[in-house]
Amino acid sequence: MDSKICKIFFFYKRLLRNMNYSRFLTAVSMARRPSPIRILTELQQRSPPSLISLAGGAPNPNTFPFHSATIQMKNGETVLFDETMMKRALQYSGSSGIPELVSWMKLLQMRLHDPPTAAYSPERGQMELCVTTGSQEGLCKVFEMLVSPGDNVLLDAPTYSGTLAAVQPLGCNIINVPSDQYGMIPDALRDILARWDPADEQKPGSSVPRVLYTIPNGGNPTGASMTAERKQKVYELAQNYDFLIIEDDPYYFLQFQKPWAPTFLSMDVDGRVIRTDSFSKILSSGLRIGFVTGPKPLVDRLVLHIQASTMHTSTFTQLMVSQLLQVWGQEGFLKHIDSVVEFYRAQRDAMLSSADKWLKDVAEWHAPAAGMFLWIKLKGIKDTQKLIMEKALEKEVLLVPGGVFQIHSSEACPYVRAAFSLSTPQQIDEAFKRLSTLIKEAL
Ligand code: PMP
């Protein structure tokens, strides 16, 4: 179905549903209270310079040793931190992110995803966005906000080990939803959900899952990308059973073909999608800039979790990125993405041709349509853990054994994850030659 028609169809289908967000929140999240000091900081950030504030406990930046900085860009442009800017960069700032970065990113989200919730009534959750210290912080806090002990949580299987690290300690019951090279399989999800009655969703104590987590593009570790049709089917299931979708999409900008796939956010007529984005793979992983976009009631609550922990993402790195984005504009940003994608596409192709050369007889894989990972199944090897952690090191080649991406990491897994992000094509070729010898010796 044409995506515009889809949106209209779902809008009318759900016309009577207003989201009851409080039913999704954990006791920890409900107990979070706005910090009065943080509110004052936000207020101060938006006030004219004539405001005299004796309120906050901010230190005086005149006592800091840094004066100014000029950051030279590779293309000859500069990002300038003059004295005034530097003082701001070194100071506390609001918990949802510096206003100019938040606005810039909101406009980009509107352009890329055109979220239906941005246009509808507040009851439907209106789109909101906040900056996080990498998308990992966003994810961790989203889980803390939504996942209570004993909850059933739906997760791509296998999945990113950082997600498991964030969600497993919460004491929930993780339900693996099988996936293939096109991501999560909606029919498998439907079968899993069939054990519940959708009508039970709102009943107190109901065990109907309230959260589904997925990596829709260039999955980590599988490299899988979900088709628009699959997303639509998963979204319909979310509507039937009234659960939220956490769309963790750090590889969205690393898609190797255009047009980029429609996102869950772009289909979200109800306000049930929380999307995490990351600048780690495209601008810098060390700057730690990520974003959470979703229904305002949920993002506003998430900010309370930020207030109580990191307080805010580094003002310095936010300003650095924000200044760069102002210089580039959306077009410059997207042009930069194109060049990053070109690099990773060439790397992927190099890895695929080395895999063809060395691993054809001993392994299987699917070409990833996004991201930086190749998920390789070793033929005739039941579990890759020992092979990689002991024998591969002897041969001086390092990969990640697939087990670390399973809920039960000790369960046998015949896969390894190979990243094509850092090594040169020559190194990749040599690594696969060594891997092929290793597999043959093991068989
Ligand atoms: N989600 C996934 C699927 C990832 O692969 C990563 C990084 N490896 C993250 C989240 C976290 O990324 P960051 O915090 O650097 O934005």
UniProtKB/TrEMBL annotation:
Q: Which GO terms describe its biological process?
A: alpha-amino acid metabolic process
Q: Extract one GO molecular function annotation from the record.
A: methionine-glyoxylate transaminase activity
Spell out the reaction equation it catalyses. Answer: 4-methylsulfanyl-2-oxobutanoate + L-kynurenine = kynurenate + L-methionine + H2O; L-tyrosine + glyoxylate = 3-(4-hydroxyphenyl)pyruvate + glycine; 2-oxobutanoate + L-kynurenine = (2S)-2-aminobutanoate + kynurenate + H2O; 3-phenylpyruvate + L-kynurenine = kynurenate + L-phenylalanine + H2O
Superkingdom of this entry's organism?
A: Eukaryota
- Pathway terms, separated by semicolons: Amino-acid degradation; L-lysine degradation via saccharopine pathway; glutaryl-CoA from L-lysine: step 4/6
Annotated Aminotransferase class I/classII large domain residues = 88-435
According to the UniProt entry, where is the signal peptide? none
Cofactor(s) needed for function: pyridoxal 5'-phosphate
The protein's UniProt keywords, in alphabetical order, are: Aminotransferase, Pyridoxal phosphate, Transferase
Any single Gene Ontology cellular-component annotation: mitochondrial matrix
The record's family statement is: Belongs to the class-I pyridoxal-phosphate-dependent aminotransferase family.
Q: What does this chain do?
A: Transaminase with broad substrate specificity. Has transaminase activity towards aminoadipate, kynurenine, methionine and glutamate. Shows activity also towards tryptophan, aspartate and hydroxykynurenine. Accepts a variety of oxo-acids as amino-group acceptors, with a preference for 2-oxoglutarate, 2-oxocaproic acid, phenylpyruvate and alpha-oxo-gamma-methiol butyric acid. Can also use glyoxylate as amino-group acceptor (in vitro).
Record-given protein name? Kynurenine/alpha-aminoadipate aminotransferase, mitochondrial
Q: What is the lineage of its organism?
A: Eukaryota, Metazoa, Chordata, Craniata, Vertebrata
